[in-house]
Amino acid sequence: MQAAVFHGSGRPLVIGDVPRPVPGPGDALVKVSACGFCHTDLHYLDHGVATGKTPPLILGHEISGTVEELGPGSSMRSVGDRVLVPSVLPCGSCDYCRSGRGNICPYLKMPGNHLDGGFAEYVRVPARDLVPLPVGLDLARSAVIADALTTPYHAVVRRARVQSGEWVVIVGCGGVGINAVQFAVAAGANVIAVDLRPEKREAARRLGACETLDPTEHPDLGREVRKRSGGGADVALEVVGKPETASMALSTLRRGGRLCVVGYSDSVVPIPLHRLMFFEYEIIGSLGCRPVDYPRVIEMVRQGKVSLDAVVTATLPLARIGEAAEDLRNGRGFRTLLVPWT
Predict the structure, then answer these.
(1) What is the pTM of this model?
(2) Which of 312, 332, 304, 38 is nearest to 182 (CA)?
(3) What CA–CA distance (Å, rounded) separates 43 from 311?
(4) Fewer Cβ atoms within 10 Å of its own Cβ: the N or the C terminal residue of the chain?
């Protein structure tokens, strides 16, 4: 089969023939319809972030497709099922999984990280983890649900606990942040979207943000947010992964506010402890999405409460995956889908 193979950070992905996976006991072989190109893939390619599996490895963790073949004992799904492959696959039996927090399972596996992912014609995953997709949803575009939608859903709804009528600042309106806008608006919040790029601010406004801000025009972003919101944000979501944007998001909070960190960074961020203590701020981390919430996000898409069309800004054949990486490096678009079958 054709696949884009990762050989190490600083090296280009190599398109070529690799052996087609054979499903083992409990496995499903999924014929990939599409796989989204995410910033996490760029971290492996450009920034030296280590993968769980030593390269060579097939990247890609936003995957949709159809079940092509089932291994022995794989009774959870049927051949021909339209499915979504979750971006994290928890063990299902540890204390975290049993308490409903499988997204932070210490034994979880991630396609395109711990095992071969979706930048290929086929991917092998445990059949029990596959999530059915309704016939009415576009199969290829639904790939972005696996991370670009479920991750901000978890951040907005489960971790930041956004409520109707609250003021919510979202710092960074890329492929995940733009969907944090969608879910915060769906929750009834008043959203202030912050991004450097005018086209992303405009997209946030089209998706329901009541205010958009360019941080270069407002050196004291916290003051500007307090002016526009009547005192500051109840919730700020940082969806970039940089110390300066984390500090920026924290500065926008009103007393008792909640900062939810969604962006990845291995940097150390200085925290003004006196403000944290005196104003009773909460700082919350958010990783991926609980398995139980995938069907809920899919249903929101099916009902039109959140849009896939706003997220998928390009579709390319797998052979042009280098263009997808370059677009992401330059901040162009939200999500590019790679389609292995032409």
Answers:
(1) 0.95
(2) 304
(3) 20
(4) C
